[in-house]
Amino acid sequence: MTLVYNALPREEARILSQLRTGHTALNECLARIRAEQSASCACRMGAELIQHFLFYCPKWRSERTQLRETMGDGWGDLTYALGGWSGRRDGRNGCFVVGPRERWKPYLKIIKAIIQYVIKTGRFQPKATVGEEIEVADVVGVVEETEIGKVTGRVKMT
Ligand SMILES: [Zn+2]
After folding, report:
1. 141-144 own/partner pairs: CB under 8 Å, 24+ apart
2. Residues in CB range of 63: below 8 A, 6 or more apart
3. CA of 146 to the centre of ligand 1 (A)
C-alpha cells in the first residue's frame, strides 16, 4: 500500500488513510470517540458507517455516479474499494473475482474514484463551526502503514 500512498497527493493520501484506518469524520466514528452525540447519519437511515457513506446514503446519490461506474461489479465491496484483496468469489465458477491474492495489485483508478467522491461530498473536510479546535492527528491517530499520521490539517468539533 505504501506505493499507492506515494502515488497520491498529500490531501488524497490523507483521505485514503482515514478510510483504511476507519478514523474518519463520519458520525459513527465521532460517536465512538464521543465527539458527536449520535452515530446516526443525517439521512436517518441508520448509522453513518463508512459503507453507508460510500455506497448507500441517499444524500450523496449524484456525487456517487462516477464512482459507481468505475467500480462496476465490485460495488459495495469496501475492501476492494480501498485497494485491498477482497477474496470475493464469482457465483458461477467459484473463482476469485479479482484473481489470486499473490498477484493482487490495488486498482489506483478505483482508489482515485473513491477519493474524488469523498472530496465531492465535502464530508471529510474540516467543519467551519464554532467550538474547540483539535488536531486531525488526534482523530486519525497513528497510521502504521505510512508517515501520513503526521497530518497538519485541523478540524473543529462542535
Ligand atoms: Zn445516510
Report:
1. 141/21, 141/23, 143/17, 143/21
2. 117, 120, 121
3. 30
Q: Name 93's Cβ contacts closer than 8 Å, sequence gap at least 6.
A: none
Q: Which residues have C-beta under 5 Å from ligand 1, the single-atom ion?
A: 41, 43, 57
**What is the whole-number distance in angstroms between the Cα of residue 102 and the centre of ligand 1?**
36
* pLDDT tens digit sequence for 110-153: 999 999 999 999 998 654 444 334 444 444 333 333 334 334 44
- Return the domain boundaries, the chain: 2-156
pLDDT in tens, 1-33: 778 888 899 999 999 999 999 889 899 999 988
Distance CA 76, CA 54 (A): 8
Distance 59 CA to ligand 1 centre (A): 6
Rg (CA), the chain: 16
pLDDT-based confidence at 94, cuts 50/70/90?
A: very high
